[in-house]
Write a structure and sequence with these properties.
Layout lengths: L1 E4 L4 E7 L5 E5 L12 E2 L2 H15 L3 E8 L5 E8 L35 E6 L6 E7 L23 H11 L5 H10 L11 H15 L3 H15 L4 E7 L2 E8 L1 H10 L2 E4 L11 E8 L5 E9 L4 H15 L5 E3 L4 H10 L4 E3 L2 H11 L15 H5 L4 H9 L26 H5 L4 H20 L4 H21 L8 H9 L5
Parallel strand pairs: 11-14, 14-15
Antiparallel strand pairs: 1-2, 2-3, 4-8, 5-6, 6-7, 7-8, 9-10, 10-13, 11-12, 12-13
């Protein structure tokens, strides 16, 4: 008998048999090794125990034979090494016409005939299960500790990873870059079980799950947001079972429009999406001279009818018309604006504004207002240096209230508008909300105990105990299926 080592420590004992072959026994703590006669409350606990032992040892198990009583309760359960059995014998002769075209299937698992196993049976009182047979020896080496994160079980993507891939996908970051980013934020690649291929496969499977039901998923998500988020507007049109038009605007957009919506610009020339639909953003300029979005729509075509529907939705959401609209030179849009917005000025480009605005503004001296010919206050909402010189010359130290527009107030938008629910909407319901709370609480505790190693270790042990309590309190809890996991990641159930 001698010990086989990997880079860290002993992983198994190698035993030479009388026929010259070798058996291998994993080196694990005695408390983690299965003991014949041990009892477990349910069959899932048996599987969990043997799976943990296998993970510590460096091999993978698979479920085998299960016998049931007449009542349907499992009576026996066999757990085996996943490469148990012998490879199938395949005969192929290319000179024989019958087999020359048969393809030999190559599998990723090579059978070794290993007899390692664990067998459980129901106890006499039918209140639990007992381990009555356990074979510890294997006829193969075990996976080194450095590569155990690549085993079939451990390289599966966790739920936070799936959420991470989906969130980055919404910002046009692919699965490969998502894997690099996740590894860089989690102490390196050795801390991430799933490899790049798993990330790409997950993205592929998620896209296949969505399939041709993406329009239904979009409508369901938007309706959920309309139901759960305050002051959210969403309208859509379905023609011939296809989504042809939609419009949406949230509460922040409506606050922005209330303060900065005197001039609105929208451009219906974006057509870069998969379905060749026209994306129409409604934009304006805020108090920092930055673009703000008042709403957005998507149209299947640029007819007068479609544009009229979009503008009607805009008017319904905001309840009042803008003073000035700037668009591209689209006849259909011009007709729609004339039909829906009958109280505003429509300009096709900045040339019209620059050339015609000075002609329509006159100086009003009746109320003592000061207007400069540069029209700085009329165009941008703040006084120019020429008017300040007049104020200074007249000994005026306080700017009159009529020159202080509300759009320059620091707390223009109410505080509640910055809540995540208002900014990002309803995603995943109560589950996602609770997940975010749990992550933030744990992160806060880790930062609080970062300089006290003893208390940090105590906190980790308490978290593990809580995990055990939850598992014991929910013995029959089933894992989510792949479809259920996709629905959770998307935040909506596929219709």
């Amino acid at each position: 008998i001698h010990y086989v080592k990997d880079a860290d420590s002993d992983i198994c004992k190698e035993i030479e048999l009388s026929d010259g072959t070798f058996n291998y026994k994993p080196i694990v703590d005695k408390s983690e090794k299965p003991k014949i006669g041990s009892e477990y409350s349910i069959i899932d606990k048996c599987i969990e125990m043997y799976a943990k032992y296998a993970e510590k040892s460096g091999f993978i198990i698979r479920k085998s034979t299960q016998e049931k009583l007449k009542s349907g309760i499992p009576a026996r359960k066999y757990l085996l090494y996943n490469k148990k059995g012998l490879p199938k014998v395949v005969n192929k002769d290319t000179m024989t016409e019958e087999t020359s075209e048969n393809q030999i299937r190559t599998g990723s698992i090579i059978r070794t005939g290993c007899l390692a196993r664990a067998k459980f049976k129901i106890n006499v009182t039918h209140t639990g299960y007992v381990l009555y047979e356990f074979e510890e020896a294997h006829n193969h080496m075990f996976v080194p500790k450095a590569y155990r994160n690549l085993t079939k079980k451990r390289k599966q993507m966790s739920h936070p990873e799936q959420i991470f891939v989906q969130q980055l996908s919404s910002t046009s970051i692919g699965a490969t870059r998502a894997h690099h980013l996740y590894a860089s934020t989690h102490s390196g690649y050795e801390s991430v079980n799933a490899i790049e291929t798993e990330y790409r496969n997950h993205k592929r499977d998620l896209n296949a799950h969505i399939g041709e039901g993406d329009a239904k998923i979009l409508i369901t998500k938007m309706n959920n947001r309309k139901l759960h988020v305050d002051n959210f507007s969403f309208e859509y049109v379905v023609e011939n079972s296809q989504l042809s038009e939609l419009f949406w605007a949230d509460e922040m957009s409506k606050y922005n429009y209330k303060e900065f919506g005197d001039t609105v610009s929208f451009d219906a020339t974006f057509r870069t999406n998969k379905y060749n639909m026209v994306f129409v953003p409604f934009t304006g300029i805020d108090n920092h001279r930055k673009c703000v979005t008042f709403g957005a729509g998507m149209l299947s075509n640029e007819t007068t009818k479609s544009n009229k529907w979009l503008l009607t939705c805009f008017l319904k959401a905001f309840n009042n018309q803008p003073r000035l609209v700037i668009t591209d030179q689209d006849p259909a849009m011009k007709n729609a604006i004339t039909s829906v917005f009958n109280e505003l000025t429509h300009r096709l480009c900045m040339w019209h504004i620059i050339n015609k605005l000075p002609l329509k503004v006159s100086t009003d001296k009746s109320d003592g207002s000061l207007l400069c010919s540069c029209m700085n206050f009329a165009r941008f909402g703040f006084l120019c240096r020429h008017i300040f010189c007049v104020f200074k010359g007249n000994g005026l130290e306080v700017i009159p209230d009529k020159y202080i527009l509300k759009r320059w107030i620091k707390d223009l938008l109410p505080p509640h508008i910055w809540r995540k629910k208002q900014m990002f909407g309803f995603e995943g319901g109560r589950y996602m909300e609770c997940s975010a709370i749990v992550y933030s609480v744990v992160d806060y505790c880790l930062k609080l105990l970062a300089k006290d190693e003893d208390k940090l270790l105590e906190f980790v042990e308490n978290v593990k105990k809580l995990k055990t309590e939850v598992e014991e309190a929910n013995p029959n809890a089933k894992q989510l299926s792949k479809k259920e996991m996709f629905n959770l990641v998307l935040g909506v159930e596929k219709p």
